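Much of what follows relies on a compact textual record of a protein's fold. With that in mind, consider the following protein and its fold in token form.
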Amino acid sequence: MTASASPRSAVINLRARPTQRELLDRACQATQRSLTEFVLDAACREAERVICDRRYFSLDGDAFDAFAAALDAPLHDNPAIRRLLARKAPWED
């Protein structure tokens, strides 16, 4: 079962100002989606952006040594990576 097909069982409660709720309701109506779908999609998109944008991470000594070794290792030809890097990024269209 994929993440999108698995049953929703976790509850998230939100409090919003009436103007925020009205804005969300208008957007839901315009996109023909439920409030749950709209809010979850927007929140997950932002969460992915935040996680992908992390510039700082910490490693213990052994993990750092393995990381440094991987960075220092010679590159091997990888046609799939070459094709991926040759494509335009989705935001460049």
